């Protein structure tokens, strides 16, 4: 197998299909580590991983932290809201100061698209994008693909529907990127106001009716309705959205019996998914969370194997 | 031209493994509490074969596990690219078991050092014994095998290749060749 070329993970568009397959293959081995009594291997002993989060996060931050710790790396958290950013320090200055303390990897989340790219160009340590605005969330897409591969045995040829607030969703953008590359048939389903114009150029089909995707889909991937990004009026009302795009037990009857119901979390219960569906037998939401740790271990392991930075 | 010399063929490998199985059973007085753990990839195949030999001799089943030592290697930080990682599959508790660690070639001892560290993360076995098909010398750590199929004196610039049917090769054999010849 060819070597891993990248010292940063910024966007799935940088990865080839073979790279994604390698991540999935590697994550399979790491999943076992988390089932052991002693959930720790010495692979990254002595490395320091910094998490620089300028946006709220529970799942992703904890997942990265556990992944790094289970590889024996030292981790530290910088929450930008309680840091010297309050005194007017720029993010780049803050990152350069952290770099000056000889850290090895910086994991960054920010509300603006492209922040991870800027840091990767300016800094010597590796940079992992843990979500930049509406642009990309590569590790989420990788863990979604890992979950699909593990549950259904393949990705190629599957019908995957991505439903909800596509416009504001970095999860959707990264998944579209990865899934199309892996040979899945992707259909986006959203109200016209939440569908980014021109997105069909990325090799996906679009629809505005849930009924169009329900019967054929092997995977139903729901996106969180991002209320924090809804300052403008995109929807007449949440109730109307739920009626047209929310999944209930009743509507699920029109889907394939063994369809996978996925959601990147946090779920707005009663909005994207009814509580019964979110906890139902088709739901793999918590499995996605479990797999997230394995996939992030795989990413850290692979990135640390690369000495020279590419970007 | 490469100067390969074949030092074991299919039959000698088969007889060696059968003898190793007998020695393991003799020293451990049967199969009670015994388990086999093979180091990927060669050792895992040999562990499976030893399990079959023991079944033939004692009509008893010994559990077999597979260990990937990649994450415990001492050269991870200096290797140029990350080695491919594969699954570790040990679906039994090794606590208080007599573990027979199996590998194809014993060389510097560093792989075994890594395997010992990995095993202690899975539990505290009663003891760990080492079985290898080939001992080629040149140890860099104080490690020795309890069961050896064949001792082969080698030069440092030689490679010992254990070729097994299970990895898609036509016939089992052990070959010594000069490094660089492929």
In terms of topology, how is this protein built?
The complex is a heterodimer of chains A (311) and B (182).
Chain A (H helix, E strand, L loop, with lengths): L16 H17 L14 E6 L5 H12 L3 E6 L11 H10 L4 E6 L4 H8 L3 E7 L5 H15 L6 E5 L6 H12 L3 E5 L15 E3 L2 H4 L5 E4 L15 H8 L3 H4 L7 E3 L12 H4 L6 H20 L7
Parallel strand pairs in A: 1-2, 1-3, 3-4, 5-6, 5-8, 6-7, 8-9
Helix pairs in contact in A: 1-5, 1-11, 2-11, 5-6, 5-11
Chain B lengths: L4 E5 H19 L5 E6 L2 H17 L5 E4 L30 E9 L3 H13 L4 E9 L11 E5 L6 E6 L9 E6 L4
Parallel strand pairs in B: 2-3, 2-4, 4-5, 5-6
Antiparallel strand pairs in B: 1-8, 7-8
Helix pairs in contact in B: 1-2
Q: Calculate the mean pLDDT score of chain A and round it.
A: 93
What characteristic shape of chain B results from the CA principal axes? Answer: globular
Oligomer: heterodimer
Radius of gyration over C-alpha positions of chain B, nearest whole angstrom: 16 Å
**Biggest interface:** A-B, 26 and 21 residues
CATH level-3 fold name of the largest domain in chain A = Rossmann fold
Strand arrangement within the widest β-sheet of chain B reads 3-2-4-5-6
In CATH, the homologous superfamily of the largest domain in chain A goes by the name Aspartate/ornithine carbamoyltransferase
For the sheet with most strands of chain B, the description reads: 5 strands, parallel
């Amino acid at each position: 197998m060819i070597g891993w070329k990248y010292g940063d993970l910024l966007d799935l568009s940088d990865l080839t299909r073979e790279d994604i397959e390698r991540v999935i293959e590697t994550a399979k081995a790491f999943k076992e580590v988390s089932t052991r009594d002693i959930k720790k291997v010495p692979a990254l002993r002595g490395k320091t991983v910094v998490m620089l989060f300028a946006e709220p996060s529970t799942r992703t931050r904890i997942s990265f932290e556990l992944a790094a710790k289970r590889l024996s790396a030292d981790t530290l958290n910088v929450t930008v809201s309680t840091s010297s950013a309050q005194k007017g320090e720029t993010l780049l200055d803050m990152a350069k100061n952290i770099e000056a303390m000889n850290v090895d990897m910086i994991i960054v989340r920010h509300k603006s698209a492209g922040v991870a790219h800027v840091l990767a160009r300016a800094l010597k340590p590796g940079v992992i994008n843990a979500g930049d605005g509406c642009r990309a969330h590569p590790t989420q897409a990788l863990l979604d693909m890992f979950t699909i591969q593990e549950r259904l045995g393949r990705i190629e040829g599957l019908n995957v529907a991505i439903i909800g607030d596509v416009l504001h969703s970095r999860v959707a953008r990264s998944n579209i990127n990865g899934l199309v590359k892996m040979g899945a048939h992707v259909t986006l389903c959203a109200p016209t106001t939440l569908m980014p114009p021109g997105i069909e150029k990325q090799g996906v089909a679009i629809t505005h009716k849930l009924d169009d995707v329900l019967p054929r889909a092997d995977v139903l991937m729901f996106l969180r309705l991002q209320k924090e990004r809804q300052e403008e009026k995109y929807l007449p009302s949440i109730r109307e959205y739920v009626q047209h795009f929310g999944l209930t037990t009743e509507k699920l009857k029109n889907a394939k019996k063994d369809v996978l119901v996925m959601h990147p979390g946090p779920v707005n219960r009663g909005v994207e998914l009814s509580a019964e569906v979110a906890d139902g037998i088709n739901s793999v939401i918590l499995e996605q969370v479990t797999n997230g740790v394995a996939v992030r271990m795989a990413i850290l392991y692979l990135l640390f194997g690369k000495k020279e930075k590419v970007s | 031209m490469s100067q390969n010399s074949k030092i074991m063929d299919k039959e000698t490998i088969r007889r060696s493994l059968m003898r190793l199985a007998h020695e393991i059973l003799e020293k451990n007085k049967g199969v009670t509490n015994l388990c086999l753990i093979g180091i990927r990839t060669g050792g895992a195949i040999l562990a499976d074969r030893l399990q079959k030999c023991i079944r033939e001799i004692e009509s008893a089943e010994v559990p077999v596990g597979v260990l990937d030592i990649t994450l415990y290697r001492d050269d991870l930080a200096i290797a140029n690219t990350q080695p491919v990682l594969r699954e570790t599959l040990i679906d039994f508790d090794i606590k208080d078991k007599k573990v027979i660690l199996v590998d194809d070639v014993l060389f510097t001892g560093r792989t075994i050092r890594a395997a010992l560290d990995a095993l202690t993360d899975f539990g505290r076995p009663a003891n760990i014994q080492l079985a290898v098909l080939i001992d080629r010398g040149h140890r860099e750590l104080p490690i020795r095998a309890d069961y050896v199929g064949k001792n082969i004196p080698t030069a440092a610039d030689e490679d010992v290749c254990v070729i097994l049917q299970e990895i898609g090769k036509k016939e089992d054999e052990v070959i010594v060749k000069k490094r660089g010849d492929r």
